Amino acid sequence: MKKNRNKRKEQGMRDTRFASGLCLVAALMLLSATPAVANVGVQCPPDTDGIDTNMDGLVDNDNVCMHLSAGDGYTQMADGKLQYIFSYSDLTGIEDMDMALMQGMRAAVFPAPTIYLREGEKLYLTLTNVGMMDRPDLFDPHTVHWHGYPNAASIFDGVPDASIAVNMGASLTYFYTSPGPGTYMYHCHVEATEHMQMGMLGNLYILPYQDMLPDLTDLNGFTHHTNNKYAYNDGDGSTYYDVDFPIQLGSFDPDFHDASMGTEPLPFALMTDKYAMLNGRGYPDTVGPDRIATLEENNGVNSQPLNSLVEATQGDKVLLRLSNLNVTRFYTLAVTGMKMKVIGKDAKLLRGPTGLNLYYDTTSITLGGGEAVDVLLDTSTVPPGTYFLYTTNLNYLSNDTEDFGGMMTEIRVTAGD
Known about the structure:
Blueprint: H1 2-32, E1 63-76, E2 82-90, H2 97-104, E3 112-118, E4 122-131, E5 145-147, E6 171-177, E7 182-187, H3 192-197, E8 201-207, E9 218-219, E10 222-223, E11 229-230, E12 240-241, E13 243-252, H4 254-261, E14 275-278, E15 310-313, E16 317-324, E17 331-335, E18 340-345, E19 348-349, E20 360-362, E21 364-367, E22 371-378, E23 385-391, E24 398-399, E25 402-403, E26 408-414
Helix pairs in contact: 1-2
């Protein structure tokens, strides 16, 4: 009965705002057609410098283009609760602004679309602010901030007091180079506590030059082969891996989200997260299919495209790219049945100033907001089976009041040939 009442209440609020949302659509379409609006549009110049900056053996293919929208939408918690969120969605390939506005509304994805580049590549990232379909009273600008990333110019850093913020109905193309490999993350930096709590967070990582070395290159006794993959330019093959998985820790306070959906005062001081997640899902959804139910409320866009299921063949080295953009608390992760070797932290290889190897083995890792670590799992010493990656903050092994869920996923190791 309680769930039914809550569902009717949520539906009533959505219906009440739907008419207002239609007005917002009409207003945005009018804005997008008005020359006076700062409507930058998509910028995607060809690479014509004749230089192979990503070391793949080819020239003039080093520019990467991506188009994101920023707006609101809905996602579904593992206990079935419909959750109102802010976030980004992928509009890559859409250059018509009217179409971008229509497809980007109520299409939020959590976590935001994963961004990854090869070291040396240049990214032109267009952000279109499509507005808040279900909050027509809000006119929030948005940005993209690459956390911990050394930008060449502060104008592209996404911090509003030092760079440009994108107003509703407008676009801005950010330019990034990729100077160093490692695991980063990105988020909106406008009213950061609110927008990050609401879901404007995403995975970001850079692949190293070392992947592209010629076959049979000697790395101080380690022989590189074509298609080998490394977490960093280590010089000795010590960060080699077979499969990698980006996993972002996060959590939601449903009362905060419900207050936002209901246009009520936001309880910042009372913020208490009750849904702890990996890649935007609580267990058992963390091991579900790549796509879970597509929500009608989210414009038919799947709002939770990433699971956190780690799959490997016995003998594989598994790279976990772990990041945390939580705004309320630290989380500790542990793995059953095997140790984690920490090889990088905050996109830096763990080496001393003289090159001394500072990797270390551990059974648990604690991450605060804005921190990232790269860890290797060696499956050669463990029997095939199912293992668990989970938070040791045991009260967060739940989906709100529903036990046996939350911040946990499975590591499935199958027997080799």
